[in-house]
Amino acid sequence: MRRSYFLVGLVFLIFFVISFLTNIIGPLIPQIIADFELSLTMVALLPFSFFVAYGVTSIPAGILLETWHEKRVSVAAFGIAFIGSLLLALFPGYLTAVVSLFLIGSGMAMLQVAINPLLREAGGEEHYALNATLAQLVFGLASFLSPLVYTYLVLNLQAGNPDGDLLIAILARLVPADLNWIALYWIFAAISLLMIVVMLVSPIPKVERTGEERAGALATHLELLKTPLVGLFFLGIFAYVGAEQGVANWISEFLYQYHGYDPQTIGASTVSWFWGLMAAGSLLGVVLLKLLDSKVVLRLFTVAAMVCFGAALYMAGPVARVAFPLVGFFAAVMYPIIFSLALNSVHEHHGSFAGILVTAIVGGAVIPLIVGGLGDIFGLRNGMLFLFIPLGYILSIGFWANPLIKNETLATGRRD
């Protein structure tokens, strides 16, 4: 297909919405624990239900994409997210939260399957690492904003004087007084509904994929899964999303348990800066990807992230409040580089491979749950030490990956 700035921009908007809906779970965890009287393991089932949807939905979504194409799949995805958000908004409770987050996660999985290969095609395969890193910048900005929106809503609803703010006045009538954080899910439902309209009115052309870009039949996926390289990159995405969510989901609870910081203000703010600095790290990554091989960038940023994570776990509260966001800064390039290294390491079946890689986002379900289980037994700090394992695997990718197409740098000036 022809290069299209419009499609690239639309993909970036979808990434923004995905992030805004996805990465609010961490700041909510301390409040959910208190409101529903949950253990660390039980509350970890909430992000588990969200991210396990990627494992269930991604490959079927890739196959569905062949007949429905990007526009209809995206509309359906936002429709599912709308239903999930509205379910929790109308019937707040632990069990409905589990079902709601599974539905929202299913919608986000469908979107990721549709837009990752689209970004590679619309922006050019030689620029995919760069565009994917820019998408991570947008992703980080949205995740920076969502905890701030949470704090704004909760503090204003608690103040009990909504007359000067129409949004707060409306939400005050809809949200239970003792569950102010549910207001977020009314916002999510409205955003999902708005995105359905955006997708319906946007002139998205039918993307004619070549044989290598099509998602392919189930047999194609099974053939790819037998390839060791595919399995190694699957583990890479699994490790990254697990580590990212394993840090972000537990920041607020960690700061509350070990340093006594208020989850609704300091905790939410620290999570916000985790994602905000991830956006800043993406900017640095964009520059470095024009100067260095992407594998070198991955190695440098992963080592730095591991150092900052250790400082966050074992140093004083004020240091932890800075070190946790710095982990986000250095994690910024991991996902786009691993994804681009993966797709650029095979000759064909990129659509099917993308579906498999998106399935690996299920790591965001499994690894935080392991951290929660270990935290119930050994304490949250010791449970979070487990995250050094996936970070170590990510570091190894920077040494063994051997892509057929390397990222274009100023030195090469062309596709290798």
Specify the structural class. Answer: mainly alpha
| Order of secondary-structure elements | HHHHHHHHHHHHHHHHH
Outline the low-pLDDT stretches: none
What is the level-2 CATH architecture name?
Answer: Up-down Bundle
Taken from the alpha-carbon principal axes, the silhouette is globular
Strand content: under 5%
How many domain modules?
1
Overall pLDDT level: 87
Describe this structure in words.
This protein has one domain: Growth Hormone, Chain: A. 79% of the residues lie in helices and 0% in strands. It has helices at residues 5-22, 25-36, 40-90, 94-123, 128-159, 166-174, 183-201, 218-225, 228-259, 263-289, 294-314, 317-331, 334-343, 350-359, 363-378, 380-384, 388-400. The model has no long low-confidence stretch (mean pLDDT 87).
Core attributes:
single chain, 416 residues, mainly alpha, Growth Hormone, Chain: A, 17 helices, 79% helix
Compile the SSE list and pairings.
Elements (H helix, E strand, L loop, with lengths): L4 H18 L2 H12 L3 H51 L3 H30 L4 H32 L6 H9 L8 H19 L16 H8 L2 H32 L3 H27 L4 H21 L2 H15 L2 H10 L6 H10 L3 H16 L1 H5 L3 H13 L16
Helix pairs in contact: 1-4, 1-5, 1-7, 2-3, 2-9, 2-10, 3-4, 3-7, 3-14, 3-15, 4-14, 5-10, 5-13, 8-14, 9-10, 9-12, 9-13, 9-14, 9-15, 9-17, 10-12, 11-12, 11-13, 11-17
Give a short summary of the structure:
With 416 residues, the chain is mostly helical. The protein has helices at residues 5-22, 25-36, 40-90, 94-123, 128-159, 166-174, 183-201, 218-225, 228-259, 263-289, 294-314, 317-331, 334-343, 350-359, 363-378, 380-384, 388-400.
